[in-house]
Amino acid sequence: MTKYKLEYLWLDGYTPVPNLRGKTQLKEFDAYPTLDQLPLWGFDGSSTKQAPGGSSDCVLKPVRHFPDSTRKNGILVMCEVMMPDGSPHESNKRATILDDEGAWFGFEQEYFFYENGRPLGFPESGYPAPQGPYYTGVGYSNVGPVAREIVEKHLDLCLDAGINHEGINAEVAKGQWEFQIFGKGSKRAADEMWVARYLLQRLCEGYGIDVEYHCKPLGDTDWNGSGMHANFSTEHMRTVGGKDYFEALMKAFDKNLQDHIAVYGPDNDKRLTGKHETAPWNKFSYGVADRGASIRVPHSFVNNGYKGYLEDRRPNSQGDPYQIASQILKTISEVPTEGSAMKQAAE
Ligand code: ADP
Ligand code: MN
Ligand code: MN
Ligand code: MN
């Protein structure tokens, strides 16, 4: 028997942006446990804005687990928060995502490192040299002494955990970085994104650095904001597609604009201004290879007969990938596919 350190992770009840919470329990298993072997657990919801003090018990239900290479026999256990009767807690947005193994998401997480209340590498007062050399840059004056070390360690922690990390790059602003996570199945990429965020924040503790996810931390200046572009596709989009279906899909995205913006992260009007490769938040648009559109249509999509994936550029860095995935699939589900339209006609 081996004693495993199980770090149960969940999202709290803070709005508009939930925080990650985690606590450890030790359990003995013969070998690395399967998900089914991980027990339900509980926590005091009155401390996380998830329950009143009188009846404060919330239930943690393991939904995916990951090896934690920073701890001997460590496992990260991503959980959904449930009510004592077994129904999903209202803060549990993962439970609102349609089950669809054929849905694939790729999230591009941008963020700033913050130290002493300002972006890592900013002088005590004023600003560093203007944006230009930082994006994908190299050298001490561009990235400083420590950011790359953190980013590289984070990459390895994600790979050790089995997270499908796809890449990293230094971003446009000084102290700003990006990583991408891709997953097949409607909930996988979102689960992995939350665990990757957890690993990044925990890693930064030891450096005295915080991760700033706000979409426009430097306000109305010439410094870039942070997004979390959501690339998405379904089985139908990849294998059937077609121009008519695509146009119907874009119509549905246009109609549901408010519902999307509501879950694409707070303060997004400060970022989606219509300038700097963004679309204005209150007007839906799409365009081929257009980085100033709400949805960018890759060249490959058009060249393949309107088949493949699309990039929604509006979600921001603070957005909850569960709510983003949930809303995108909800809008897609409103558009009849040819098959189901024919089926409906036959019925
Ligand atoms: P860019 O910065 O040019 O927008 P990135 O390489 O940073 O591009 O991000 C592209 C994202 O699109 C990646 O996360 C990738 O996994 C994702 N992606 C690629 N193909 C698909 C697909 N078929 N369905 C969903 N996402 C996809
Ligand atoms: Mn990118
Ligand atoms: Mn980027
Ligand atoms: Mn992108």
Automatic annotation (TrEMBL):
The lineage of its organism: Bacteria, Pseudomonadati, Pseudomonadota, Alphaproteobacteria, Hyphomicrobiales. Coiled coil: none annotated. Residues 4-86 form the GS beta-grasp domain. One of its GO terms (molecular function) is ATP binding. GO terms for cellular component: cytoplasm. Catalyzes the ATP-dependent biosynthesis of glutamine from glutamate and ammonia. This is Glutamine synthetase. The keyword Nucleotide-binding applies.
